[in-house]
């Protein structure tokens, strides 16, 4: 006989066991778009304890929408190796351009990250950060439903060695650090410089360089990296997002090895 209360117990108990254990981790990734998920996969693969927070009900950020809801993405030759590793099928278009299904890319990123032991909390967002002794060491979290309902509910906190801002165009985490830390970001102006207009070629090129530490304990990846360090947007070419996620995972892995 199927019992409703056993089902409810199974869900709550399993969730809370995991959530309690995830209150402390090595890396918290804010945002489950392509760059955040790609970073999560590589960090998980390296055996690092990773927690991903995603404000939406469905992870993926701008990925499933492809270009203006045509659900295909374009990637370049250099980033094809990442999709090959994930098992995503690509089709050669012309020259150095390849296309892939945005849905297959999302499903494989999710699948591979989860199978590496990454825990993803959807419907939960980082509303603030913890900064101690000049270093970001965690985030303050709340349910998206609380934000949508505009009700006053105090948040909870999650600690980590490093926080990764993968929140996309808004660079929400870097902005909160800039606003509240009372110290300069590691950008030329000391602040979030802001995203520049569409220029796909330049945007993809500078993104890799912009993928780095933006404040002690805080790294930036994907569109958040270009927003923080002032790079252009690039539209539905996603190779840079994947390479940025991979690069930031390597930076964090080497930092964790030193600490
Ligand atoms: O925007 P998003 O897809 O970021 P990305 O990984 O990729 C950018 C591309 O999709 C596209 C592009 C391609 O070249 O330019 O725009 O840089 O995903 C960001 C995710 O972060 C979530 C948001 O819901 C989205 O799924 N997010 C934003 N703020 C928060 C957050 C927050 N404070 N806490 C948790 N999740």
Describe what this molecule looks like in 3D.
The chain has one domain: FAD/NAD(P)-binding domain, CATH 3.50.50.60. The chain has nine helices and eleven strands. The protein has helices at about 5-20, 35-45, 75-85, 100-115, 145-150, 170-180, 200-210, 225-230, 240-259; strands at about 25-30, 50-55, 70-75, 90-95, 95-100, 120, 125-130, 135-145, 155-165, 215, 220. The strands form two sheets. Strands 1, 2, 6, 7, 8, 9, 10 and 11 form an eight-stranded mixed beta sheet that branches. Strands 3-5-4 form a three-stranded antiparallel beta sheet. The radius of gyration is 18 Å and the shape is globular. The model has no long low-confidence stretch (mean pLDDT about 95).
Low-confidence stretches: none
| SSE sequence, one letter per element | HEHEEHEEHEEEHEHHEEHH
**What general outline do the C-alpha atoms trace?**
globular
The helix content, as a percent range, equals 40-55%
State the end-to-end CA separation. 52 Å
CATH topology: FAD/NAD(P)-binding domain
Bound molecules: ligand 48F
Strand count: 11
Radius of gyration, CA atoms, in whole angstroms: 18 Å
The helix tally amounts to 9
């Amino acid at each position: 006989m199927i019992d409703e209360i056993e089902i409810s117990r199974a869900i709550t108990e399993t969730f809370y066991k995991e959530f309690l254990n995830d209150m402390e981790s090595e890396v918290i990734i804010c945002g489950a778009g392509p760059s955040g998920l790609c970073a999560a996969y590589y960090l998980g693969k390296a055996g690092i304890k990773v927690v991903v927070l995603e404000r939406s009900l469905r992870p993926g950020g701008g990925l499933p929408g492809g270009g203006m809801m045509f659900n295909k993405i374009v990637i370049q030759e250099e980033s094809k190796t990442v999709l090959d590793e994930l098992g995503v099928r690509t089709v050669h278009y012309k020259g150095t351009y390849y296309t892939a299904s945005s849905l297959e890319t999302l499903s494989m990123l999710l699948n591979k990250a989860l199978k590496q032991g990454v825990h993803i909390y959807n419907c939960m967002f980082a509303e603030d950060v913890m900064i101690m002794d000049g270093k970001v060491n965690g985030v303050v979290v709340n349910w998206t439903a609380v934000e949508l309902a505009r009700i006053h509910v105090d948040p909870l906190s999650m600690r980590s060695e490093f926080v990764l801002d993968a929140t996309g165009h808004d660079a929400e985490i870097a902005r909160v650090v800039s606003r509240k830390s009372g110290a300069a970001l590691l950008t030329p102006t000391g602040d979030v410089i802001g995203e520049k207009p569409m220029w796909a070629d330049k945007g993809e090129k500078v993104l890799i360089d912009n993928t780095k530490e933006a404040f002690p304990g805080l790294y930036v990846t994907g569109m958040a990296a270009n927003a923080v360090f002032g790079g252009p947007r690039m539209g539905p070419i996603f190779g840079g997002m994947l390479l940025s996620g991979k690069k930031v995972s390597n930076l964090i892995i080497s930092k964790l090895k030193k600490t």
